[in-house]
Amino acid sequence: MAYALEISDLKKTYPGGTEALKGISFAVEEGDFYALLGPNGAGKSSTIGIIGSLVTKTAGRVKIFGIDADEDLALAKTMLGVVSQEINFSGFEKVIDIVVTQAGFYGIPKSIALPKVEKMLKRLSLWDKRNDQARTLSGGYKRRVMIAKALIHEPKLLILDEPTAGVDIELRREMWTFLKEINENGTTIILTTHYLEEAEQLCRNIGIIDGGLIVENTSMRNLLSRLNVQGFVFDLESPLDKAPEIEGFPLKLEDPLTLVVAVNKERSINALFAELSSLGIKVNSMRNESNRLEELFIEMVKK
Amino acid sequence: MSNNRNISVALWTLTTKEIRRFLRIWIQTLVPPAVTMSLYFVIFGSLIGPRIGTMDGFDYIQFMIPGLIMMSVITNSYANVVSSFYSVKFQRSIEELLISPMPNWTILLGFVLGGVCRGCLIGFIVFGVSLLFYPDFTVVSPLLTLTVLFLTSILFSLMGFINAVFADSFDDISVIPTFVLTPLIYLGGVFYSINILPDFWRAVSMANPMLYVVNTFRAGMLGVSDVSIGFALGMILGFIGLLTGSCLYLLEKGTGIRQ
Fold it and tell me: Which residues are B59's β-sheet partners?
């Protein structure tokens, strides 16, 4: 099996003694869309920092498409694009200059970079702002510049460290579409995010890191199948005084028009609808009580 | 980044970025030395200079010109690299370089070339200004003059780089120029020949590295020097070698730039 990224026994202890990574190992298959999740301070950014040469590892190995970063770091770097959590470009430069310069750092001359930059900026809806100083852009546009920079040398592996933090819902959805598209075109993507819905929507495989250790590394489907109970919220047509009592379905009245229920995955929700219907309770609409992955995530990291 | 063409593109990109940076803020980088040096020429050259008489056989303003050019070159090449490299650290755009496959020596060379370009450009500007006050000035040895100009810019760009590597705040990038560079430059023979000093202070002055830089440059422009040119050039080259090694070691180790 070909791997885009192989991490073996990676350790990081910061000066002062903080042990951010206690020897993590995981691999990401070529073409995968992989989520690396964990609470704040779990070690995600340290891991990404080490892969991108921004943080010096204490021990362990990093291989990018089979190339050991200790043996040929420059070659490994040509295959990697990183979108950092923080904005990391000069705000006093024009958008187009920032991206052309980044291409230059990868050895792409300006004459070759310009058409690529034009295509990239147009794809990310940045073309109209190409001559604006980067500091004048909104947070969402700055994120797009970060993505354009990371992709301009056409890396085979793209790592995004919370790329949608602080961006509005519309832009987040646009980014999801874009990321799905480049993943379908063959780019392996590793994503860290605090929006677990994002990971659930986009990623096929998932690693959960906590306290500097990988506590889970599996497929999204496998992980979600472990969820025994799912919460639903029903919006009712008519108000109720108290929650009805139906055997096997613990119902709770949140307000007179909202009923909440936790349904065991062995039970059919149709049975609940039938019972509600027989009691004359009409349901106008239904939604998940919360993100399914979120429930699992909280369960795992609190162990 | 394995082939030479890619490395040369990366180096060109970083160098032109550095040059664009100081040209974009020309009002802060190119104009102040011209204004300050004009004031020096007016006050010390035209007003006080004639009362002083000659120094080492030259009109005082003529004697002062190489020193003032060197002073501007030293402070500007140093300031360019220290402020630029600290800024990329501060605004995290250092990550653009660290993530890229550029070798460390290319990163160092790019910043140093930026400092050299600014230092040399300032040197020519101040020389141009000096001609307004002393139009008859002729350069005795253009080759030695340009060589010292170039080497001095490299030397102080490297020093600026090391300062920026260790700097944790904007205060840290002004401490060395204010409390170390400026006193050494002023006491390094910019305004006087050490021959006018008592023996003790002349001996103390010989320990000032600026004296060698200023005097070697003066030797190129006027043909006189208080120190041996061969020794001074050797010292400059030796320090360039030592500082280059130190900078590359710091980059390799990630001091101040990698966690």
Answer: B54
Find, in chain A, the residue whose alpha carbon is nearest to that of B16: A101
Quick one: tokens of B209?
Answer: 């590295």
- pTM higher than 0.90, yes or no? no
Q: Give the CATH class of A229-301.
A: alpha beta
Task: Report the residue of chain B nearest A77, measured CA to CA.
Answer: B101
* Cβ contacts of B101 on chain A, cutoff 8 Å: 73-75, 77-78, 106-107
- Asked if A107 and B258 come within 8 Å (Cβ–Cβ), the reply is no
- B157 or B46: which leads in pLDDT: B157
Say whether pLDDT at B217 is over 90. yes
- What is the 8-class DSSP label of residue A249? B
| Predicted local distance difference test score (pLDDT) of residue B206 | 85
The DSSP string of chain A is --EEEEEEEEEEE-TTS-EEEEEEEEEEETT-EEEEE--TTSSHHHHHHHHTTSS--SEEEEEETTEETTT-HHHHHHTEEEE-SS--S-TTSBHHHHHHHHHHHTT--HHHHHHHHHHHHHHTT-GGGTTSBGGGS-HHHHHHHHHHHHHTT--SEEEEESTTTT--HHHHHHHHHHHHHHHHTT-EEEEE-S-HHHHHHH-SEEEEEETTEEEEEEEHHHHHHT--EEEEEEEESS--SS---BTTB-EEEEETTEEEEEEETTS-HHHHHHHHHHTTPPEEEEEESS-HHHHHHHHHHT-
Beta bridge partners of A67: A64
Domain residue extents for chain A: 3-225, 229-301
Structure tokens at B142: 């253009």
Q: How far is CA B154 from the centre of its chain?
A: 7
| Nearest CA-CA partner of A46 in A3, A5, A13 | A13
Report CB contact under 8 Å: A54, B258: yes
Nearest CA to A95 out of A123, A135, A140, A153 is that of A135
- Please report the number of interchain residue pairs, chain A to chain B, with beta-carbon separation below 8 angstroms: 88
Listed residue (A67, A68, A50, A66) closest to A2, CA to CA = A66
Q: Check: CB of residue A108 under 8 Å from CB of residue B12.
A: no
Q: How close, in Å, is residue A107 to chain B by CA atoms?
A: 4
- The architecture of the domain spanning A3-225 is 3-Layer(aba) Sandwich (3.40)
If DSSP codes are grouped into helix, strand and coil, which group holds residue B147? helix
**pLDDT the model gives residue A227:** 65
Look at phi and psi of residue A214 and say left if phi exceeds 0, alpha if psi is from -120 to 50, else beta: beta
HSE of A103, CA atoms in CB hemisphere, 13 A: 24
Pairwise CA distance, residues B245 & B242, whole Å? 5
Element (H, E) at A271: helix A269-278
- A151 to chain B: closest CA residue: B100
**Which positions of chain A have pLDDT values less than 70?**
1, 227-229, 289-303
Tokens 């070691």 -> residue: B249
Cβ–Cβ of B13/A104 closer than 8 Å? yes
Helix (H, G, I), strand (E, B) or coil at B161: helix
A3-225 and A229-301 in the same fold: no
